[in-house]
Amino acid sequence: MTARPTALTLDPITVEVIGAALSSIVEETGEALVRASYSTNIKERRDCSTALFDREGRTLCQAEHIPVHLGSFLDFIPMVLAEHDPAGMRPGDVFVGNDAYRGGGTHLPDIVLAEPIFIDGELAAWTVNLAHHSDFVDRAHAHIYQEGLRIPPIRLYRAGELQKDVQELILLNCQVPRERLSDLRAQMAANRVGVHRFQELCARHGVNTVLAAGEALLDYAERKMRAGIAALPDGSWRFEDVFDTLDFDDPIPLAVTVTISGDEIGLEFEAPQQMRSGINMTRTALLATVYYIVKSVIDPTILPNAGLARPITVTAPQGSLLNCSHPAAVNGRVQTCQRVADLIIGAFAQAAPERVSACTNSACTVAVFSGTRQTGPGKGSYWVYLETIGGGGGARPDADGLDGIHVHATNTSNLPVEALEVEYPLILERYELVDGSAGAGKHRGGMGLRRVYRATEDCMVRVDISRNLSRSWGLLGGGPGGHGSFATGPDTSAFDRGQGELRAGEWLEVVTPGGGGYGRPEERAASCAENQVAAE
């Protein structure tokens, strides 16, 4: 691969213009993916992400979609470059992958498509996108071999020609292949937008100028991160919390020590050994969570590129829950990511409480329904519906926490009732904020949600909840948020650790946790006294 000169001296205006153009490209490719997709998980819930990488595999820009998806991007291009000779790549090549150990991924439903961008016959950058394919259901999670099809980085397209045997292999291992094919085509369409827009940018400004601006933007992100770290006091702060899940009877202890020294920051995690469950995190999932939180606390305006990570050091025991090794299962890793995010906030709160919120709901509450259609035009076909449900946001230093939102590493949307009931044999009988779930305080925490589903056809269900034993903590005297929970009707057969069956006419209730409060409740203004009912 011929090196291009990048030692150009660019004025700040040019760098800013090109940086804004890169951000515009990833946002446009993201919208193209959402609009072209077929499944409700992408077209309605927006469970997808897009990014641009330089030719060496460093993040140039990521759209403001799902923070944890950065974990599936971080190692993908480096793995492609390590296993496929760049000299043999051609325009129209597209690489696909998802594996947590040989594919750069964090869990198998997140399938990545990456396409090299060529300028004048030379590799200049990569456009990359990820879509969560809600497909691999009704599975155990003792190890990764039970969780779905593992795809290392391989070509799905070669010089623009579809590798039909590869596509057929993928679809044969999917439970809803029609959705998968349509969403994969949407991902391809999004990447084409990224390729064309980047090529147009290079034609307008010159490829050397664009590449040099990319380097300058990485350096700028590093400088801003270092300046933000240096503005905080030096020292070490340790915080402990527990992670509770339906997979285990007892809460799991977690801890982090955040150390600031000059313009660098280190995060050292403590966690038990990886478990026979899908809650394990790969190192890239941990890094994505850390980079998101540190950026949010230090300076949210820092550009989302690889430069911001340079002053950050992250350690966690190899083979642990937070840095697992093959063949640990990872399907539910976002549950753990959410708890890790608030764990870090708990440490930062000791150094700079004015920069952080109280604890959020710390969860990614998930309900997955699946079954075979028993009536209608699709009779006999298999269906899968996954949704993640928002909860309470943590109270802020100057405002209440937001109600019923997705927090931290997820950032998807709550599915509208209309889309749910049109697409699936389910009726949503209740969808409401939960009174009493907000943590009390000068500023109250956000309220959790209640959703009650009634099945109109028999289906299998899996529910993943957290904070059912613990509660989201408050800051500076604020109270804890309410618990998460789920319940079924009196005639429904017993669920085993959140998994069971609903027969037609039976119902399931899911309640998400509330957020913690900020400041002492007695300091709350009288005009805000309503909504001040403490979580029980």
TrEMBL record:
It comes from the Bacteria. It holds the Pfam family Hydantoinase_B. One of its GO terms (biological process) is glutathione metabolic process. Residues 512-536 are annotated as: Disordered. GO terms for molecular function: 5-oxoprolinase (ATP-hydrolyzing) activity. Residues 11-521 form the Hydantoinase B/oxoprolinase domain. GO terms for cellular component: cytosol. This is Hydantoinase B/oxoprolinase family protein.
